[in-house]
Amino acid sequence: MNTVLDAIEKRRSVRSYESKEIPKDILNTIIEAGNQAPSAMNSQPWRFVVVEDSAMKKKLLQAALPNAKKILEQVKDTDPERYELIMKRYDEMEDPVYYSAPAIIFVIGSGRYADHSCPLACENIMLAAHSLGLGTCWVGFGSMVTEDAGVKGSLALKDDEKIFGPIVIGYPEVYPDPPAKKPPEVKRV
Ligand SMILES: Cc1cc2nc3c(=O)[nH]c(=O)nc-3n(C[C@H](O)[C@H](O)[C@H](O)COP(=O)(O)O)c2cc1C
User: Fold this and answer.
1) 13 CB near ligand 1 (under 6 Å)
2) What is the model's pTM?
Protein backbone atom coordinates (compact mmCIF):
# COMPACT_ATOMS: atom_id res chain seq x y z
CA MET A 1 0.00 0.00 0.00
CA ASN A 2 1.04 3.60 -0.54
CA THR A 3 2.90 4.50 2.68
CA VAL A 4 1.53 8.05 2.91
CA LEU A 5 -2.06 6.86 2.53
CA ASP A 6 -1.36 4.08 5.00
CA ALA A 7 -0.11 6.58 7.62
CA ILE A 8 -3.11 8.84 7.03
CA GLU A 9 -5.48 5.92 7.47
CA LYS A 10 -3.83 4.33 10.51
CA ARG A 11 -2.83 7.40 12.55
CA ARG A 12 -4.94 7.62 15.69
CA SER A 13 -5.12 9.96 18.64
CA VAL A 14 -3.18 8.05 21.29
CA ARG A 15 -4.09 8.66 24.94
CA SER A 16 -1.84 6.17 26.73
CA TYR A 17 1.95 6.23 26.54
CA GLU A 18 4.99 4.28 27.69
CA SER A 19 7.37 6.37 29.82
CA LYS A 20 10.22 5.56 27.37
CA GLU A 21 12.09 8.69 26.26
CA ILE A 22 12.04 9.67 22.59
CA PRO A 23 15.55 9.75 21.08
CA LYS A 24 16.63 13.32 20.23
CA ASP A 25 17.32 12.58 16.56
CA ILE A 26 13.84 11.12 16.14
CA LEU A 27 12.22 14.16 17.75
CA ASN A 28 14.32 16.40 15.52
CA THR A 29 13.24 14.48 12.42
CA ILE A 30 9.59 14.88 13.43
CA ILE A 31 9.94 18.60 14.05
CA GLU A 32 11.74 18.99 10.73
CA ALA A 33 8.70 17.31 9.11
CA GLY A 34 6.50 19.92 10.81
CA ASN A 35 8.73 22.65 9.46
CA GLN A 36 8.32 21.29 5.91
CA ALA A 37 4.56 21.91 5.95
CA PRO A 38 3.09 24.31 3.40
CA SER A 39 2.47 27.80 4.71
CA ALA A 40 0.85 30.87 3.22
CA MET A 41 3.46 32.89 1.30
CA ASN A 42 5.98 30.33 2.62
CA SER A 43 5.81 32.38 5.81
CA GLN A 44 6.49 29.45 8.18
CA PRO A 45 4.77 31.44 10.93
CA TRP A 46 5.65 28.92 13.64
CA ARG A 47 8.17 27.97 16.25
CA PHE A 48 8.31 24.81 18.33
CA VAL A 49 8.73 24.34 22.08
CA VAL A 50 9.36 20.77 23.22
CA VAL A 51 8.59 20.04 26.87
CA GLU A 52 10.14 16.92 28.39
CA ASP A 53 10.91 18.15 31.90
CA SER A 54 8.58 16.54 34.45
CA ALA A 55 8.34 19.62 36.72
CA MET A 56 7.28 21.71 33.72
CA LYS A 57 4.75 19.06 32.69
CA LYS A 58 3.28 19.21 36.21
CA LYS A 59 2.97 23.02 35.96
CA LEU A 60 1.25 22.68 32.61
CA LEU A 61 -1.24 20.18 33.99
CA GLN A 62 -2.04 22.41 36.98
CA ALA A 63 -2.63 25.35 34.63
CA ALA A 64 -4.73 23.46 32.07
CA LEU A 65 -6.86 21.16 34.25
CA PRO A 66 -9.31 23.71 35.76
CA ASN A 67 -9.90 25.23 32.31
CA ALA A 68 -10.45 21.81 30.74
CA LYS A 69 -13.00 20.96 33.44
CA LYS A 70 -14.83 24.24 32.85
CA ILE A 71 -15.18 23.47 29.13
CA LEU A 72 -16.30 19.93 29.88
CA GLU A 73 -19.14 21.24 32.03
CA GLN A 74 -20.48 22.84 28.86
CA VAL A 75 -20.39 19.48 27.03
CA LYS A 76 -22.52 17.96 29.80
CA ASP A 77 -25.76 19.33 28.35
CA THR A 78 -25.00 19.09 24.65
CA ASP A 79 -23.36 15.63 24.60
CA PRO A 80 -23.94 13.80 27.91
CA GLU A 81 -22.56 10.48 26.60
CA ARG A 82 -19.24 12.04 25.60
CA TYR A 83 -19.18 13.96 28.88
CA GLU A 84 -19.52 10.71 30.89
CA LEU A 85 -16.79 9.03 28.85
CA ILE A 86 -14.37 11.93 29.34
CA MET A 87 -15.18 12.35 33.04
CA LYS A 88 -14.41 8.64 33.59
CA ARG A 89 -11.02 9.29 32.00
CA TYR A 90 -10.51 12.30 34.26
CA ASP A 91 -11.25 10.22 37.38
CA GLU A 92 -8.99 7.35 36.37
CA MET A 93 -5.95 9.12 34.98
CA GLU A 94 -3.14 10.92 36.74
CA ASP A 95 -2.81 13.28 33.78
CA PRO A 96 -6.05 13.39 31.75
CA VAL A 97 -4.90 16.42 29.72
CA TYR A 98 -1.44 15.51 28.38
CA TYR A 99 -1.82 11.76 29.05
CA SER A 100 1.57 11.57 30.81
CA ALA A 101 3.24 11.60 27.41
CA PRO A 102 7.05 11.79 27.52
CA ALA A 103 7.06 14.91 25.36
CA ILE A 104 4.70 17.74 24.46
CA ILE A 105 5.30 19.81 21.32
CA PHE A 106 3.85 23.32 21.43
CA VAL A 107 3.49 24.73 17.93
CA ILE A 108 3.47 28.48 18.48
CA GLY A 109 2.37 30.79 15.70
CA SER A 110 1.96 34.47 15.06
CA GLY A 111 0.88 36.79 12.28
CA ARG A 112 -1.89 36.78 9.69
CA TYR A 113 -0.99 33.39 8.24
CA ALA A 114 -0.72 31.42 11.46
CA ASP A 115 -4.32 30.18 11.70
CA HIS A 116 -4.22 28.46 8.35
CA SER A 117 -0.59 27.35 8.30
CA CYS A 118 0.22 26.12 11.83
CA PRO A 119 -2.33 23.27 11.83
CA LEU A 120 -0.58 21.92 8.72
CA ALA A 121 2.70 21.78 10.65
CA CYS A 122 0.80 19.95 13.41
CA GLU A 123 -0.57 17.36 10.98
CA ASN A 124 2.87 16.81 9.45
CA ILE A 125 4.21 16.20 12.96
CA MET A 126 1.46 13.68 13.71
CA LEU A 127 1.91 11.78 10.44
CA ALA A 128 5.71 11.77 10.65
CA ALA A 129 5.52 10.52 14.24
CA HIS A 130 3.14 7.75 13.21
CA SER A 131 5.46 6.69 10.40
CA LEU A 132 8.25 6.30 12.98
CA GLY A 133 6.20 4.14 15.36
CA LEU A 134 5.21 6.95 17.72
CA GLY A 135 1.74 7.98 18.81
CA THR A 136 0.45 11.54 19.10
CA CYS A 137 -2.62 13.47 20.09
CA TRP A 138 -3.51 17.11 19.45
CA VAL A 139 -4.74 18.21 22.87
CA GLY A 140 -6.62 21.48 22.56
CA PHE A 141 -7.27 21.46 26.32
CA GLY A 142 -3.52 21.54 26.79
CA SER A 143 -3.29 24.93 25.12
CA MET A 144 -5.41 26.60 27.82
CA VAL A 145 -2.41 27.53 29.93
CA THR A 146 -1.85 31.11 28.86
CA GLU A 147 -3.37 32.68 32.01
CA ASP A 148 -0.49 31.20 33.99
CA ALA A 149 2.36 33.72 34.00
CA GLY A 150 4.96 31.07 34.89
CA VAL A 151 3.95 28.80 32.02
CA LYS A 152 3.72 31.76 29.64
CA GLY A 153 7.26 32.72 30.65
CA SER A 154 8.61 29.20 30.17
CA LEU A 155 7.10 29.05 26.67
CA ALA A 156 8.35 32.62 26.06
CA LEU A 157 4.86 33.26 24.71
CA LYS A 158 4.51 36.80 23.38
CA ASP A 159 1.15 38.62 23.33
CA ASP A 160 0.81 38.25 19.56
CA GLU A 161 1.49 34.51 19.65
CA LYS A 162 -0.97 31.63 19.81
CA ILE A 163 -0.58 27.97 20.69
CA PHE A 164 -1.54 25.31 18.11
CA GLY A 165 -1.86 21.78 19.42
CA PRO A 166 -0.02 21.12 21.60
CA ILE A 167 0.84 17.69 20.27
CA VAL A 168 1.60 15.09 22.91
CA ILE A 169 3.94 12.41 21.63
CA GLY A 170 5.43 9.12 22.75
CA TYR A 171 5.50 5.37 22.28
CA PRO A 172 1.91 4.12 22.54
CA GLU A 173 1.02 1.86 25.46
CA VAL A 174 -2.46 1.30 24.08
CA TYR A 175 -3.23 1.89 20.41
CA PRO A 176 -6.91 2.80 20.03
CA ASP A 177 -9.39 1.29 17.63
CA PRO A 178 -10.44 3.68 14.89
CA PRO A 179 -13.42 5.82 15.80
CA ALA A 180 -16.38 5.90 13.42
CA LYS A 181 -15.85 8.49 10.69
CA LYS A 182 -18.61 9.97 8.57
CA PRO A 183 -18.14 9.42 4.84
CA PRO A 184 -16.96 12.55 3.07
CA GLU A 185 -19.69 14.85 1.82
CA VAL A 186 -18.72 15.55 -1.77
CA LYS A 187 -20.52 17.50 -4.44
CA ARG A 188 -19.22 17.49 -7.98
CA VAL A 189 -20.12 20.41 -10.18
C1 LIG B 1 -8.29 20.96 17.24
C2 LIG B 1 -8.26 19.63 17.96
C3 LIG B 1 -8.35 19.63 19.35
C4 LIG B 1 -8.32 18.40 20.02
N5 LIG B 1 -8.30 18.40 21.40
C6 LIG B 1 -8.23 17.24 22.06
C7 LIG B 1 -8.12 17.24 23.49
O8 LIG B 1 -8.09 18.27 24.16
N9 LIG B 1 -8.05 16.03 24.11
C10 LIG B 1 -8.07 14.85 23.41
O11 LIG B 1 -7.98 13.81 24.03
N12 LIG B 1 -8.14 14.83 22.06
C13 LIG B 1 -8.22 15.98 21.38
N14 LIG B 1 -8.26 15.98 20.00
C15 LIG B 1 -8.23 14.70 19.27
C16 LIG B 1 -9.62 14.34 18.72
O17 LIG B 1 -10.45 13.97 19.77
C18 LIG B 1 -9.45 13.21 17.68
O19 LIG B 1 -8.71 13.68 16.59
C20 LIG B 1 -10.80 12.70 17.18
O21 LIG B 1 -11.53 12.10 18.22
C22 LIG B 1 -10.65 11.69 16.03
O23 LIG B 1 -9.82 10.60 16.42
P24 LIG B 1 -8.51 10.23 15.58
O25 LIG B 1 -7.55 11.39 15.74
O26 LIG B 1 -7.98 8.97 16.22
O27 LIG B 1 -8.90 10.04 14.15
C28 LIG B 1 -8.26 17.18 19.31
C29 LIG B 1 -8.14 17.22 17.91
C30 LIG B 1 -8.13 18.41 17.25
C31 LIG B 1 -7.96 18.43 15.75
Assistant:
1) yes
2) 0.96
